Each structure stands twice: as structure tokens, then as C-alpha cells.
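Quality-control log, excerpt.
Job 1 of 2 completed; input and output follow.
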Amino acid sequence: MYRFLFLLASLLLSGAAWAQPVTFGASIQLTGPVANTGRYYKDAYDFAVEKINAAGGITIGSARHPIALRILDNQSDVNLSVRQYAQLLSQDKVNFLLGPFASNFVLADSSIAEKVRVPMVQGGGASDQIYSRGYRYIFGTLPAASNYFGSTIEAMAKLNPKPERVALLYADDAFDVSVAKGTRALLQKAGLRLVIDERYSTNASDFSALLSRIKSGNADAVLVAGHETEILNFIRQAKSLNVSPKLYSFTVGVPSADFRHALGKDANGASGMTAWLPSATLKDRWFGNAEEFARAWKAKFGYEPDYHAASGVAAVQALVNAIEAAGSTDPQKVRDALAKVSFDSLYGPVAFDDKGQISLPQIMVQIQDDKVVPIYAGKDFINKLEYPLAPWSKR
């Protein structure tokens, strides 16, 4: 049902009159295999809407409009998600769309937005394929998947000695295929030798054959593009089979507290990347700064935010800024305003390129002593990388 969060805001505003609500709609994975990440987007949308309404909602001309939020559970089923986005527009009559989690969902769901010419701003899909179709109504707050390992590979090339044999493993979904394609080019440019290049099935649970190949091929650095459950299975099986590369890095999981809790001490040494860390230098119109946002998020939801949370909040804020810039809820006017929007947020500077995607640098991070430590960004090491990693028996 609708989340009329603006009721609280109206009380805080001492009875000030509201104009008609502007409704945002989304279909999100609240149950099913990827619900653990999907919850970031539900919570991000709820939190952003609550905060914006408490500050007066959306200003269009002289009127203040509260945001109403309609969220449906797609049960981690992409076909259901497509049907629900059609429902949001045709039956629920939402004004604008927020996206789901995962690139394969965004690829399918954004076709609905494009067909009816209603903007969708999404913070859950990074695949380059989303933006290669010439669509005009899809905007995204995650940086390009093809450069996810960019900071990691730059760091690897500066190590002494640098890794000599690199293994690349990737799932067969849209996001991970885009990661792999970009990673091959980045490795070649950095002069790093790719000796294993293997695609595996999404939701794979058995990595024993791939780990045996890594061990027999003496790969000393392993890059894995996949979803969090797959990464957890990979690390657990690497330990059980005593496969100990000098470095391994993953596209997801590492910045998440859930990842560290799931693996315990075995999470230490894992590297990854993030487009966002909660820094006080990232200032925001509604939340103050990213550190304040992170504290408020933890107090409200009981778990720490990661870049998914910040990206989801930025998606809501992008729509609000575009509506205010357009001075209208007309979908075409808001779409044109989104193409020009530029603002500072707790996530970082938000502006979309001509394809609709944001550009933010990835920060290489590593789990050390049970904490996420920034390692490399902006062409320089920030902290010391634990490299080479000790064998499992000595950790």
C-alpha cells in the first residue's frame, strides 16, 4: 500500500497546506534470492522520501508537494518485476519510477519506462548494456560496470612484485558480463597477464572445479564478478580446498557488514571496490553529510549502509531535483531536466552523461582486522594493501 510518509512532515510543518502528492513507484526484491541486497533500495527510498517530506517535500512553483511511495515485491523474479512496473504506471498511476536492484532487472524493467516515456531513475544496475540501447528515459546512479575493477587493476600494476598470472571469473548475467569485458581491456592496458577467463552460471554454489584450475594454473591474483551469495561460496570453498592466491578481489560483498558477519575472520584479506564511503566531506541538502547519514541509517534500520544505500538515496534526490528544476510533473519536462541535473549529495556529485549514467571513481578496499579499509583511489595508495596474502593455514 502507499506509504504516506508526508503525514508526519505535515504535522512538523504546523499544519501548512500540501498540494497534490507526487508518487514514485518501484518494484524491488523484498523476498527471494537477492532480497538481502534488495532491502537496501526499499530502505533507501523510504528514508529519502521521509527526509525530503520532513523538509517540505517537492517545491513546484509556490506549492509544496509531498512524495508518496508505492513499492511492490517482485520476489526476485524478473518477469514479475516487468509486470509490476506496467501495473505501477497503468493501474496505480504513479508519476515517476525508481529502479530495482540488479542489471538484468533494470534491463527488462526500463523497457516499460521507455515505452510509455516516463523517467526511471535507478541505483541498482550498472551494466553498460543498460545504456547502449539508445534509451532516453533511463538514468542510473551506479558507475559503469566495465570499470568496476579499474582502481584494483591500477593498484595491482603498482605492486612490487606485481601479480604475474591473473584469473578472471564472472557470472553469466548482464552486470558481470559487462564487468568481464571491461576488465579484459584494463588488464591488457596494465600489462597484466590473463591466464584464466571463465564464465559460470548465476547463483552457482559449487566453485570447486574453478578453484582447482586456479590452483593448478598458479594464478596469483583472482578477480571475481558475481553476486554476494556466490562470493561467499567462493571464499568458503577456497579455504576448504586450501586455494590461497596472493590477492583476490570481488565486485560485491566486501563493503557490506553482512559479508563480514557471514564469513567472520575468513573475510579478512578480501579486496573489493566501492563508489562510496561515508565521509563528512560529502555534503547533502537533506541529510547533512555522509557520516551523519550513515549514523542515522544505522539507528533507523539496525545495519550499516553501503554504496547500494547511498546510490538509492541519490536516485530519489535526482528525481526531486529534476522535478523542481522543471517546475512541473510533466514526464518529458522532468526527463529533460534529469539530463541536465547537477547537484552535490551524500553519495557524491550527481550528473548524468548523454547516455544517462553517472560517473564516479571506484575506491579499492580491503577487509583488514574485520574492518573495511580504503586502499587505492585517484592514482595513489591510501593505506597499505595486505599483499601477498598469507596461506589459509597461517591466517
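Job 2 of 2 completed; input and output follow.
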Amino acid sequence: MNTPPFAPLPVVEPPPDPHLADRLRAAARRTGLLLRTPFLFGAALLRRRVTPPATTLVHRLLVLRTDRIGDMVLSTGALADLKAHFRHARLTVLAPEGALQVLHGHPSVDALVPLKDRRLPPDLVGRFDMAIDLTPDERLHGARLAAATKAPWRAGFAAAGRQAFFTLPTAPVRSDRHIVDLNRDLLVALGVPSPSSEPALHLQPAERAAAQARASALGAAAPRVVVHPGAHYPSQRWATLRFAEVIARLTERIGAACLVVAGPGEEGLAEAIGAATPDALLTGPLDVRGLMGMIAVADLFLGNNSGPLHIAAALGVPTLSLSGPTDPRRFAPRREADVVLRLDLPCSPCGRGRCWHHTCLAALPAEAVAERAQAMLQPVLERAA
């Protein structure tokens, strides 16, 4: 495909950062982690360490994730590799209800257990041969849940002493490693040879058909773009008016049908886009499976770094994501079909959930996004010609 060169992104300088309170909170957090670490290491000295088991000894395997939908999607490759290695095991996943929704019908998963009230369901105690916590940060929630299972083989990531809750070799949490690669590091430590599965999700034909029908009812013909303006933190969200500008330009230039989707609590973002341009096609409320179906029937996903972005990549849909405070080395989709637009600023990525000036995303122009989206849709236009 021959495409003209893209206009360079603007060079901007963020204003001075007055967030003294944020710095103090970060310093207090680091101090707390440093203080807890020796106590946890002391507890670890009293715990007997074991070697990874032979695959034939693991019949009941529990995998834990205590965070959000996107994190679960990025763990699906690890689930496939674990299932292939511990081929005699029944694999159960414990996670919040929303994150579990993406795993319905996944061929590597045998059972799903919702995590409620942050406590391990009592009927899981003593049921598993192995428990693996895939949460790659310093929080202790997943590590404590793994220990509460009383599984003889327990594994997870090493960070600020949380390895004290595990009995098997651990893997360090490295800030320069993609989450998918961190999962592979942990699996290698457990004796899984050359884990290489990529994140992947599965939809039933009926779910795809329902999404096709819904999109058609809204008048969405090819090329079809699913636009998701939401993200977990406000600092991760590009302005709704900018999304509206891109939708208007893509509709005018190439006749794109832009379907705006929103998760629970994000309805106001979709409505703001709809109020700004009549070209936006609002899908209305969708559950997780309905959202997956709508994304699956798109030719392009456009959005911020969020759970739906990772759903799109795992479903094989090309993605164009806008990144500000999020570190693309750790979280961005990385297939050839995935493009990340971000400004090269000295303060980005910062990982903050809020920011007073938001330059990293506020200065990203709508024309640059529309131009890149149009180029990514060109093959669809050529096939339809």
C-alpha cells in the first residue's frame, strides 16, 4: 500500500509540574514498600521453598488476577501456555466478574470463579495443587489469595517482598518489560518451556451475528470504525471533542461508519461525542460480551489505552490507540496491525491517574489521528472498490 508521508506530530513543552502532593504520596508509598520488605523477607525465610512440579502431578490449577479487563486479556496467552504445559490439569481462573466475562468460551479455561469482597471463596481452600498469581505489581492482594488456597505449589511475581507468599521460584517485576513478556518470564521460572502464545479471545458465532445485526441496524457499512473514548483513569482519556472531530473527518473523507461504544459509567463520554457530531453512531449500553462482538465486526478500533483496546487486539482487529501517561513498552498492543500515537514529552509516560495540564494528550491533534486512521482503512476501501 502506497501512502503519503504523515505530517509530523507537534513539538510541545509541558508547563512546570506543581504536583507536590502527588510527589509526597509517591514518596510515602515508596517508603512504605521499603519498610515492609524486610519483614516479608523474614517471613519468607520460615517458608519452605520447593521446586516446580512434574506436569503429571498438577491436576487442579488456579490462576488469579485481581485487576481489570485489559489485564485479563493480556494474560490469555499465559493461560494457553499453562494449559498446554500442565495438560492433565483442570484450569480455574479467579478474578473480578467483569474480567471473567472475556474468558467465556476460552478453550484453555475449564472453570471461572468470581472474586467478591476481596476474599478467597471458602470452597477454594485446599482444592488446588498449584496457584499462580499473575498480578505484576507490589500489591499483596493476589499473593495473599494464593497463600490462602493452601496449595502446596504457589507462584507469582517478586516485588517488595510479596514473594514471601509463594513456595515456587518467582520472576521480578521489570518496568521495561511488556506485561505479556512478564507473564512469560514467570512461566519460564515454573518450568514452562518457551512460552509464546499471544493474547487471544473467542466469540461464539451467535455473538458475532448479534453484533453484525446491531451494527447494520445503525446503518454501519464498511469501512467500520469502533471508537471507544473511555479509559480507567481520566488522565488516559483524549478529549471527546477531538474524537468527534476525527469521526466527522473520516465520515466526510471516506464514508466511514464510526460506532461509539462505552462501558459502564462512560455513557456520558459517548453522549458528548454524539452531541458534537451527527456522524457518530452510538451503540447504546453494551455488556462485556456485547462490546467484544461489536469490536469484532469492526475494520479498525480507535481509542485510548484501555480494556477495549486490548480486546480489539486479541480479537485480531487493527488498532489505533492514543497514549499519554501509559507506558507503551508495557501495555501497548504490538502487532504490525497496531499503531500507537503519542507525543514525545519529558514527562510522559508518567503513569499518573490524574494531571493538571494533560499536555501529552491535549496537544495531540485530531488531524494527525484522522490521517493515520484513514491510511489504516485504505486496504478496506481498496477491497470494496
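Post-run check on job 2. The longest strand covers residues 90-95.
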